[in-house]
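Sequence only, no structure available. Ideas?
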Amino acid sequence: MIGRIHSLESFGTVDGPGIRLVVFFQGCPMRCAYCHNPDTWELSGGEALSTKDILEVYNKNRSFYKDGGITATGGEPLMQIDFLTELFDKAHTEGIHTCLDTSGITYNDKNVETMKKFDRLMAATDLVLLDIKHINPDEHIKLTQQPNAPILAFCKYLESHNMPVWIRHVVIPGITDNEKYLEELGTFIGGLSNIKALDVLPYHTMGLSKYEKMGLPYPLTNVPALDKKDAVNAKEIILKGFRNRRSELLKEF
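Reply:
I predicted one. C-alpha cells follow.
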C-alpha cells in the first residue's frame, strides 16, 4: 500500500520506549489551536511512500532500534488506518515494536466496518500514546473544532483490549491550565486499568514560524509558553484526581 507521509525522524527518543523510527503521517481532522504541525493537516500533502519504503529505512539502522521500534504519529495516523495497519502488521512480522501516537478522533463504535479496522489495527499495536486535548466537551470543541466523545470512547475501547496506554496532555495557560479540568482529567483516567504513564507537556510557541511561513493566522498569538514548573504542578493535580478515583474503585471492590 501507499501512504501519504510528511516526514521520517530516524532517532526519536520521546515517542515511546527506546530509540525509534518516527513516521509522521499526513492528514488530521483536528484543528488544535496550539498545533505546531499545520503542514500535516491536509491528506494530500507530504510524500507517497509504501510500507516497504518505511521498513527499509528502519532496517538500515536496525541495530540502533534494538530497544525501540516504530512510532506512527502525525497529523493523525488513523486517517490512513489501512496503510497504518499494513505497516504495523509487517513490522510485527519482523519482530518490531509498534507504537501509535493518536488522538483517537476517528473512532466510531457505531460503524461495524470501522470497528473491524480498529480491531485489526489493535492486533498489530503494542502501545498507544493517547493525546487527550481537553476533558471538558465544550472546551474541547473550542480548542480543537472537534468533539471529545469519540476520544473518551476510544479510551474505553483500548481498556477493553488491555492495550497499554501512555496519556499525553498539553497544558496551555488560560485554557487547560485549570485546576478543575486537570483534576477531572485525572479522575477520568484513574477509572481506566490500562494507563501505564502520564506525560504532561508545557505549551510552547515553536510552531508560530510555520504559521507565518504558510500564511496562516496563529490562534494563540497572545498566549505565553507555559513555564515547566507550572507543568509539574499541573501533573500533580491530575495525579491527585487519578489517585482519588483509584481509591474510590478500591473501596467499591
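The beta strands are 2-12, 20-25, 47-50, 69-73, 97-102, 127-131, 165-171, 195-202.
Hope that gets you unstuck.
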